Amino acid sequence: MDRGEFAVEMVLEALELYENEGRDAAVRYYNTAESTDGEWYVFIADESDELIAHPNQDLLGVDLKGDVFVGADGYRYGELISEATVRGSWVDYLYENPATGNQEYKHSWIIKRDGLIFGSGWYQVLPKFE
Questions:
Q1: Cα three-residue angle 34-44-38, rounded to 5 degrees
Q2: Of 56, 79, 91, 120, which has the most beta carbons under 10 Å away?
Q3: Which fold has domain 3-123?
Q4: How far, in Å, CA of 129 to CA of 78, rounded?
Q5: H-run or E-run covering 14
Q6: Per-residue pLDDT tens for 6-28?
C-alpha cells in the first residue's frame, strides 16, 4: 500500500469508528496519542470548520479558515480543507511534520460526512538546495 492509499485508509477507519460508535467516540479517540503513529494521524473539523480532533491539542477550536492554517508559503490551505465534499479530495500544502519538525509538503485526503470533515495525509520531504 502506498502512502496515499494509507492516508485514505486512515480516513476510512475514522469514518467507520464515527458511524459505528458516534461522534463523541471518534473525537475522543483521535485526540489521544494512541491514535497517532509518528507523522500519521487523523484530524476532524466540525460544522463550523473548527478543529475538534487533532494530535496538536493547541489547534483544537481553531477555525480552518483563519490565519493559523496558512503555509510558510502564504497558501491558505485551511480554506480548501473547509470546502471538503462528500466525495472526498486531496489538498496539498506546506505543514510541519510532527515526526521531523520540518516544513514539508503534506498531501491530505479530506472528506465530509454529516457536516464533519475527516482528514489524514502524508508528508513529502522537500528537496534541499545548496
A1: 35
A2: 120
A3: Beta-Lactamase (3.30.450)
A4: 28
A5: helix 3-21
A6: 999 999 999 999 999 999 999 99
